[in-house]
Amino acid sequence: MKRPWTLPTLLVLCGLVAATGPFREGDPGIGAAVVAAFAVLAALNSPLIYPRSVSASEAAQRSERDGRPIVYWRPGCTYCLRLRLRLGRGARRLHWVDIWRDPDGAAAVRAANGGDETVPTVIVSGRPYVNPDPAWVRDQLSPSA
To answer: If you classify domain 51-140 with CATH, what class do you get?
Structure first.
């Protein structure tokens, strides 16, 4: 199982290394900007930007009760980040499963995608959709859907 904080940690470390040159050359403004840019990238790729992940079995039970979609995702996935950001506050209404933390979630994604761990995979009414349009996912949350 991969660690969700590996990529954000590496981004921060890379930012610190990249900023050493400007700091040594006496240009702290550029150095601070480099560190800030890498910190933003790290935050966007961290688990903090996503709603709390649940296990695949818990997400399935919750979805069965309330009819809300399940989103299988992983940290560092730009498509998952795009979906999360474009959903805005509505993202909290979905059930999010981090496939790097939940082997059953990873197995569900592989089963839905012919053996590939392609994310985001969104399950709506038992049917998988790979990398769906965020507007479509938002529509699935509306009461009329």
So the answer is: alpha beta
